[in-house]
Amino acid sequence: MSKMQFKLNSSGVSSLLKSAEMQSVLEKKATDVKNRCGDGYEQDIYVGKNRANAMVRAETTKAKKDNYNNNTLLKAVR
Hints:
The structure is a single chain. Helices cover 55% and strands 18% of the residues. By secondary structure, it is an alpha+beta fold. It has one domain. A hairpin with a 4-residue loop joins strand 1 and strand 2 (52-58). It is elongated, with a radius of gyration of 17 Å. The N and C termini lie far apart (40 Å).
């Protein structure tokens, strides 16, 4: 067996998770989910403490009711 060790550069990983490239990947994924949901859903991208985050949410009352009755967001993520 090999005695090779792998050490992760935590500051490099942290900068990668917050990078503009990661934000663009997340934006594309969030846009795909939002488009599958239909009208009344909004997306948002923000950089948190540890990484960039993408969020899709029901914005209008009609979309909130649709998501409540049909689990639209959960089904759109699949």
